Amino acid sequence: MLRSNTISLRALEPEDLENLYKWENSPEVWTVSGTLAPYSHFVLKQYLANAHQDIYEARQLRLMIECHDPNSPTESTPIGMIDLFDFDPLHLRAGVGILIYDAQNRNQGHAKESLRLVIEYAFEHLQLRQLYCNILADNLYSIRLFEKAGFCQCGLKKDWVKTFDGWKDELMLQLIYT
Asked: Could you give the CA distance from residue 111 to residue 146 in angstroms, rounded to a whole number?
């Protein structure tokens, strides 16, 4: 199980529909997710119905991040998601994306702990050789998060992402298992 003292990473469940609907349809997230239009409940229900596929079938793994209630060990609250995407079983690599949706849940170590757990899972259980991520160059919190986890910058894509504020550069970082 992907679990620490403060968070758990778990498979998506049908009960996650409303959180997915809210998070995937948030325009603030669209810039980094590449989304251009909202998702319907119907489309998200279909996605959840197929979420049981393993990473070798779907070429991705999306996990819900749940924060444990310190006063009740059996209670937890979904606060975001972490993804392994663009899974390549030949070259043993995958991309990593993470979302902690509400601002009050950020800067509390949840993203750091989630990333640690997914790195451990990717290298030890999936036996991947490397992970990578793409981060907008002005997203200093995410850059710092991934660098503290051992990722190194390996590329810069100039004017890569068009936003309402203009064009933004995107960094590529990677972590190679040694």
From this structure: 10
